[in-house]
Specification:
Oligomer: single chain
CATH topology: Growth Hormone, Chain: A
Number of strands: 0
Structural class: mainly alpha
Radius of gyration: 21 Å
């Protein structure tokens, strides 16, 4: 019976991967469209900011709801609302009334739906997949996510040139339709609903935090992952593109190569995780993988002066990420009772991703107003760093990679020796 459930999960995974490709192409095309309208990098950053803020804020309150309602219904409704957002963009575009602020509002609504969809999907995975397969499933998800990272910009750029934003939105809606029908008609998710009265959202928050207060190791992992996400948003997922463009004389080929290598590293890591045996020391493996990503990824990216080294750094940074996610997910499913996974996963999302909006906004500000002017100032410290990072445009952003590499490596290695983390193993 569970073998059949796993086969159903494979079908669900494939359909959601197709839908994810459509959504990713839409996101990339909207960035191209918005930047073309405003010529402002901040307008693009605000698109992500408007998505993450409601997601993080609402994640705290949805856990109780998720544990008391059917996960399949939650996923179907959440995905439908997100698709309605794409439909609204298409309608506004065809009417000639689409504005950048419309995208901000739609992204905020999608962020709200993700607050429900992601923990519901996480719980559904635990219902469909045997515990010993969780690590392999996490590797599969990393593989598909990074495959999308590699191909969605290329496909979106081609389709954007061929048919414009409307064509991409139509493909996105078609991919949603496929995933919706697969989930509705072919996937049955075993339920283990929470008993008792409805309760309040605040009760769900309290119960989630009460559980984590007892499981201090899990709470420590979530808090340190929040810090690691902050470092990541400051640099890799925020200023990587402008840094590469600044240090390569605006070469879009260089940027495309580096982004592709980042996706390739994630694909390789996902394949390795999906076929390997589970690690015996999962908690420590989380931080060893993170430390390697910061050490060989951020530091090499900072010191690199050519596409070769930037590409190598991109692979080194992204390859360990699937190992981090797989080991964390395995620990969570092993230690969280099935009946309250929704509450705990929702609180996890709120904690772990709470630092991302700050990283998005702060990264751009620090690059433009702190690090770039500092490296151009010519003082003694700037000249010393210039010997390592160079003194050209973009060297200030390279200095930011140097800082996040050192800080991230230090936090990760220190966490390996934390008593609560070691208890988890």
């Amino acid at each position: 019976m569970r073998e059949k459930s796993f086969q159903k999960y494979i079908v669900l995974w494939l359909s959601q991967s197709v839908s994810g490709l459509g959504s990713s192409m839409t996101g990339f095309a909207l960035v191209l469209w918005a930047y073309g309208q405003s010529r402002s990098a901040m307008s693009v950053s605000l698109m992500s900011f408007c998505n993450y803020v409601p997601y993080v804020a609402l994640s705290l309150f949805v856990g109780n709801f998720i544990d008391r309602h059917r996960k399949k219904a939650i996923m179907l409704v959440a995905d439908s609302i997100a698709a309605a957002g794409s439909l609204a963009v298409l309608a506004l575009l065809l009417a000639g009334r689409l504005a950048v602020w419309n995208i901000y509002i739609i992204n905020a609504v999608i962020g709200m739906t993700n607050a429900f969809q992601q923990p519901a999907s996480a719980v559904a995975t635990g219902r469909l997949v045997l515990e010993e397969k969780i690590s392999n499933v996490s590797g599969m998800n990393s593989f598909s996510t990074n495959l999308i990272v590699v191909f969605s910009p290329m496909l979106a750029a081609f389709l954007f040139a061929a048919g414009g934003l409307p064509l991409i939105l139509i493909i996105d809606l078609a991919s949603f339709g496929i995933a919706f029908c697969v989930l509705l008609f072919f996937i049955a998710i075993p339920e283990q609903l929470q008993e008792g009265t409805q309760g309040s959202p605040f009760a769900g928050i309290g119960e989630g935090f009460a559980f984590l207060k007892k499981e201090r190791g899990l709470l420590y992992i979530m808090a340190t992952m929040a810090l690691i996400n902050f470092f990541s948003r400051l640099t890799y997922e925020n200023i990587l593109s402008p840094m590469i463009l600044a240090r390569s004389a605006g070469s879009s080929m260089a940027l495309g190569t580096v982004n592709a290598c980042m996706g390739i590293g994630g694909i390789a890591g996902g394949i390795m995780v999906s076929v390997k045996k589970e690690s015996r020391r999962k908690a420590v493996s989380i931080y060893v993988s993170a430390a390697l990503s910061f050490l060989f990824g951020d530091l090499m990216m900072a010191a690199g002066r050519s596409v070769f080294w930037w590409s190598a750094a991109a692979v080194a940074a992204s390859l360990p990420i699937p190992f981090i996610m797989a080991n964390q997910n395995t620990i969570l499913y092993q230690r969280i009772p099935a009946a309250m996974q929704g509450r705990v996963f929702a609180v996890r999302n709120a904690i772990q991703y709470s630092t991302i909006p700050a990283g998005i906004i702060l990264g751009g500000y620090l690059a433009d107003h702190v690090f770039e002017p500092f490296m151009a100032s010519g003082n003694s410290l700037a000249r010393m760093l210039g010997a390592i990072l160079g003194n050209s445009a973009g060297s200030g952003m390279a200095a930011m990679f140097l800082c996040t590499g050192i800080c991230g490596f230090t936090v990760s290695m220190a966490s390996c020796f934390n008593r609560e983390v070691r208890k988890l193993d």
